[in-house]
Design a protein that fits this description.
CATH architecture of the domain at 7-132 and 217-289: 3-Layer(aba) Sandwich
Strand order of the largest sheet: 1-2-4-3-5-6-7-8
Strand content: 15-25%
Number of helices: 12
Largest sheet: 8 strands, mixed
CATH topology of the domain at 7-132 and 217-289: Rossmann fold
Low-confidence stretches: none
Distance between the termini: 29 Å
Radius of gyration: 18 Å
Shape: globular
CATH superfamily of the domain at 7-132 and 217-289: Alpha/Beta hydrolase fold, catalytic domain
Number of strands: 8
Order of helices and strands: HEEEHEHEHEHHHHHEHEHH
CATH class of the domain at 7-132 and 217-289: Alpha Beta
Structural class: alpha/beta
């Protein structure tokens, strides 16, 4: 990732050669990107922002050796069960027999829900800056959201969205407080660009999906036993969204996983430490192919 080049400029250049397509699968409208070449398919599942173009730097680094699919989560589903079912239908529509699911933050939850329900379509898991959907986590989500969810949704529906955007940018920038001036400046420009066109509709959509996590049946290690040795976990230091206890819980959920720790920059490391993450993905793929 070029921290000295405006993100908007990089994205504009990327989209010229990587046009998204739209397809209706069942009841869901998917805005998706399918590119790259290779025998292995990587399925990138975006986090809570809901913007799959954020995987741009990963795609440009990996598409020469892998086929890559990513997409925005369709508005037709505000529940995770329906979302996961539609993703399975999308893979069938695109003739993708199976793939390695790569999910960061909320995308890591989606990857786990998909892998549990559709093992025949899941060839591996790469989970970054996320937590397990264990009974402990689901209970914590219920404690966090059950009482707050109605108020949060009311605010998102009724408060002028132009008032909320600056608050959200400031909240995001707290994740960059302990980074270098260069990284801080780049991150600020990135989030300003993201929220410039971010909509209330998308915010409500993603918030509903996050809240619905508390309604999920908890996962167990047995759900992922078939992926023994095919799980990569990248768990950054000082992750503001996921505590060390939650990271340990995820490690305990995944059988004989490859664990990468010690990456700094916290939760935004997936956005600004792309080279390191790509290096670990490549190392994982090399092991995976042997």
């Amino acid at each position: 990732m070029d921290l000295n080049k405006p993100y908007e400029e990089q994205l504009t250049e990327f989209l010229k050669t990587h046009p998204y397509k739209d397809v209706v699968v069942g009841c869901a409208n998917f805005h998706y990107l399918l590119c790259g070449t290779g025998d292995t398919t990587l399925i990138f599942l975006v986090g809570g922002m809901g913007l799959s173009f954020l995987y741009m730097p990963y795609i440009t680094e990996l598409e020469s050796k892998c086929r890559i699919l990513t997409f925005d989560y369709p508005y037709e589903h505000d529940d995770n069960s329906g979302l996961v079912d539609s993703i399975s239908e999308l893979l069938e529509h695109l003739n993708i027999t199976k793939g390695i699911l790569i999910g960061s933050s909320y995308g890591g939850y989606v990857a786990q829900m998909f892998a549990r329900k559709y093992p025949a379509q899941t060839d591996g898991l790469c989970l970054f800056s996320t937590a397990s959907l264990s009974e402990k986590t689901v209970n914590e989500l219920r404690t966090k959201y059950q009482k707050k969810a109605p108020l949060l949704l009311w605010i998102l529906r009724h408060v002028p969205y132009s008032w909320l955007k600056p608050v959200m940018i400031r909240s995001c920038m707290r994740m960059a407080e302990n980074t270098t001036p260069e990284v801080y400046s780049y991150t600020k420009e990135l989030f300003r660009f993201i929220y410039r066109d971010y909509t209330r509709k998308l915010d409500l959509h993603m918030t509903n999906l996050l809240i619905d996590l508390m309604n999920q049946t908890p996962c167990t290690p047995e759900d992922f036993a078939y992926l023994k040795g095919r799980v990569l976990l990248i768990l950054p230091e000082n992750d503001e969204s996921f505590t060390p206890e939650m990271q340990k819980d995820l490690i305990g959920m995944m059988p004989e996983s490859i664990i990468v720790e010690g990456i700094d920059s916290g939760h935004i490391s997936t956005l600004i430490k792309v080279e390191r993450y790509v290096e670990e993905i490549r190392r994982y793929l090399k092991l995976y192919s042997n």
